Amino acid sequence: MNANRDEQSDNQARSDYDAVGGRPAVAAVVDRFYVLILDDDRLRGYFDGVEMDRLKRHQTALVSQVMGGPVEYSGRQLRTVHQGKGISTDAFAAVAGHLVTALTEAGVEPAIIDRTVTAVAGTAPDIIENDTAAG
Ligand code: HEM
To answer: With helix as H, strand as E and coil as C, how does the chain read?
Structure first.
């Protein structure tokens, strides 16, 4: 691709998305993320019958957007998607942990991992549901 794409004007901060290597890098992290999830006995069952290619596409868009990439997530609302699955705090934490692992394995710097996971953790109220009495 472009070998000399590193020149940036001084006052233009590089997004985390660019810093990690853009779309191919994020897509690779998301691939690894779902390998870890499907390998986890606590989580595999949730994904039974889910079309993984579509899921990975959406997740790649979402993570790209969170990292400041020029990508807009246009999938369904996270609350709608996860509703009725009985996702616990523990399951959420396990999924978030796999995201950290996938990012770490890819050599992403800790500050970027931190920002990404903090943003993703903000989705918890839309995703976790069996800790509250009423839905
Ligand atoms: C950590 C934060 C999470 C984020 C940001 C997230 C994000 C997403 C996104 C973007 C999709 C695709 C939406 C679409 O197809 O339109 C999705 C689908 C899905 N997620 Fe999550 N998710 C998270 C946590 C979890 C957890 C903890 C579980 C279960 C343990 C889970 C289970 C699922 C399943 C089963 C689907 C597929 C739903 C379907 O297609 O019917 N997610 N998620």
So the answer is: CCCCCCCCCCCCCCCHHHHHCHHHHHHHHHHHHHHHHHCCCCCHHHHCCCCHHHHHHHHHHHHHHHCCCCCCCCCCCHHHHHCCCCCCHHHHHHHHHHHHHHHHHCCCCHHHHHHHHHHHHCCHHHHCCCCCCCC
